[in-house]
Amino acid sequence: MSSALTDLCRYPIVQAPMAGGVSCPQLVSAVAEAGGLGFLAAGYKTADGMYNEIKQLRGMTGQPFGVNLFMPQPNLADPSAVEVYMHQLAGEAAWYETPLGDPDSSGDDGYEAKLAILLEDPVPVVSFTFGCPTRGALDALAGVGTYTVVTVTSPEEAQAAEWAGANAICVQGVEAGGHRCTHRDDPQADDAGIGLLSLVALVRETVQLPLIASGGIMRGSQIAAVVAAGAEAAQLGTAFLVCPESGAHLLHKQALTNPLFARTALTRAFSGRPARGLVNRFVREHGPYTPAAYPQVHHVTSGLRKAAARAGDAQGMALWAGQGHRMARELPAGRLVGLLAEELDAAHAAPSTRSTQ
């Protein structure tokens, strides 16, 4: 690990920022106390909501942690396509007895207000999703002592992040659960994702920055693999989603290892942007017809997803999951960090053990 990342966490284990309440202070503090680097997810929260979680987390741990921000999104959606999709969802609204949301809600996720708070009262690490900040923003964060990470899905995005002044790159392979973190949402590239090991190698040959590898990682042996490929650390989301400290809905946690949900797929059905989740009824029925319209579709389906959760209906929920979801282990977060570290040590020791036989 690089010295900067070593200063942030004892183990090369990063808990991914998972929006929607999953990456709550309880989860982040447990990961941090165990020697990993935990992330709060500011996405979909107000600036005040983000700051309240930061203050709560500081009361729970003195260890370093990170906060993830969503970059503002350009309004490229076709309003008529969104309207057609809303008509298609009318039956869902009737079934769950809840109105569809307003597609014209804010598209910038309160980015400037959140950034202002993080500059006024700095945190150790800030990462970015759905784009690359300006050099001015990254320099400002560096000026207050914050380590910055930009999430990328291609060597070109990694190069842009390096040029902008990021301290590190989070490389997201196509195996990852949740939203694809592409800097530009191109519907023509929905099936063009690169697998994690290949992507780490490609980015390693493109930039000089430390890399954090993310996508489908569930075991310490996989952490060893991405480190061998050129990463300094691994970021895990789905692995931590089932922990008791996680804020994920119980149905979501249970679905990860339920044989009823046999596979994942990239779908725009819930948000209008490609995201990997368990294939359920909603994905099958609506995914093929969803327009490229983020965050408009996210706002439209918000009430439906909440109503499905209240009704105990996993078939109508956004069950984000990486490709390794069946390997999820329902362990306390601190114990999971320790077990991953043990598996990583065992993987590192394995070659020398074989050589003596």
Would you report the number of β strands? 11
Largest pleated sheet:
8 strands, parallel
Percent of residues in β-strands: 5-15%
How confident overall, as mean pLDDT? 95
Strand order of the largest sheet: 1-9-8-6-5-4-3-2
Number of DSSP helical runs: 15
- Outline, from the CA principal axes? globular
pLDDT < 50 stretches: 353-357
Amount of helix: 40-55%
Q: Please report the distance between the alpha carbons of the first and last residues.
A: 30 Å
SSE order: HEHEHEHHHEHEHEEHEHEHHEEHHH
| Structure classification | alpha/beta
| Radius of gyration (Å) | 20 Å
Structural notes for this entry:
The protein has 357 residues and is an alpha/beta fold. The chain is built from 15 helices and 11 strands. It has helices at 3-8, 25-33, 47-58, 79-88, 90-96, 111-120, 135-143, 155-164, 196-204, 220-229, 238-241, 250-255, 281-286, 296-310, 333-355, and strands at 13-15, 38-41, 65-70, 125-129, 147-152, 168-172, 178-179, 211-214, 233-236, 264-267, 275-278. Strands 1-9-8-6-5-4-3-2 form an 8-stranded parallel β-sheet. The protein has a 3-stranded antiparallel β-sheet with strand order 7-11-10, with no helix packed on it. A hairpin with a 7-residue loop joins strand 10 (264-267) and strand 11 (275-278).
